[in-house]
Amino acid sequence: MNFNFPVDSLNQLQTPFYFYDMALLNATLDSVKKEAGSYGFKVHYAVKANANDRILSTIKDAGFGADCVSGNEVKKALETGFGASGVVFAGVGKADWEINLGLDNDIACFNVESIPELEIINELAEKKGKVAKVALRINPNVNANTHHYITTGLEENKFGINQWDLENVIDALAKLKNVELEGLHFHIGSQITDLMSFKDLCLRVNELQKWFISHQICPKVVNVGGGLGIDYEQPDSSSIPDFKSFFKLFDELLELKPGQELHFELGRSMVGQCGALLSKVLYVKNGVNTKFAIVDAGMSDLIRPALYQAYHKIENLTSNKPSAKYDVVGPICESSDCFGKAVDLPETGRGDLIAIRSAGAYGEIMANRYNLRELPLAYYSDEI
Ligand code: LLP
């Protein structure tokens, strides 16, 4: 299924804005549901990828849970209608008010990243006369082979409990009466396109499970996080990620114990391809080596190229004249405000409508007001 741009309608709208193809979103969600469902796996959507109201409520309606990383994400998920039993709360630095919010709402699970955090959750739960369900986020020390800014499962990263600390965690759990071990949690990184990294994760999880079982512990849930990547180079030929192979790999390689549930926290792969950032060309000017197409969207609207040198495919939806090369840049006062260098585009001029593709994940949600710009608006294929 391809992303559909209703160019005439889009041309009427004030740019820049995010545009979401809701049919593609629904088709993607159907695919996740079908493939995960065929093995009985449960998926929590990683709210951090895109917390836009319409996107979030569509995902809620499709029956997914919510993986949250802040008190406000927990609040938003509950307000959107995700039931508390489908809300999990992760993050290395949960503040007391955020933990209390989770406790007051009886969320499904806190993914705990350190012993001091476990102690505080226990203390706050005790004050409320509650028992908090927790999963231990264990750093599996698996290399996700992705951009080093978004790799999270190595010992040198700040995330999770390192394996040398596990004996201490078990001792702590035995003493702390207001936390109950519900699961083991892992996440190795994001935008992972080589499934072999997930294979390494499965093998590590199997080893760790053996270790826990040798200590008479068999948690109900194994949560292997998210991280499945999308094809930024060819957003149309693979607009729906290969969820079939992804879930099959876990089914084949992960040794679940009887009664154990397998959970996932997918963000990018569920929403990445259904969004695009739409922008218009303000000016074209000649540089020393190249032409600049200066567009009205900037790094404040989509920060990924500036922050991670991320590639996003850029298309001119107006022109089909013979092609030339352009540096596509925004209006912000930073040289890094560049969406692509030497991009092959049809001959481009003022007023042309430009689409920056694969921007549904970590796009709108990471927008900011640098240079006092307005936050980008959002439109939906079924509303225009
Ligand atoms: N679970 C945990 C514990 C995570 O830290 C993340 C993402 C996810 C799940 C969802 O991962 P996904 O399926 O979306 O790969 N802003 C960056 C990505 C940061 C990802 C942070 N953690 C970007 O634009 O590439």
TrEMBL record:
Looking up SUPFAM superfamilies in the UniProt record yields:
Alanine racemase C-terminal domain-like, PLP-binding barrel
Look up the domain of life of the source.
Bacteria
Binding sites annotated in the UniProt record for substrate: R268, R304, Y308, E334, Y362
* Orn/DAP/Arg decarboxylase 2 C-terminal domain: residues covered: 18-360
User: Per the record's keyword annotation, is Amino-acid biosynthesis included, yes or no?
Assistant: yes
Q: Which residues does the record give as pyridoxal 5'-phosphate binding sites? A: G227, E265, L266, G267, R268, Y362
Task: Give its E.C. classification number.
Answer: 4.1.1.20
Carrying N6-(pyridoxal phosphate)lysine, the residues are K48
Q: Which cofactor does it need?
A: pyridoxal 5'-phosphate
Function, in words = Specifically catalyzes the decarboxylation of meso-diaminopimelate (meso-DAP) to L-lysine.
Protein name as annotated: Diaminopimelate decarboxylase
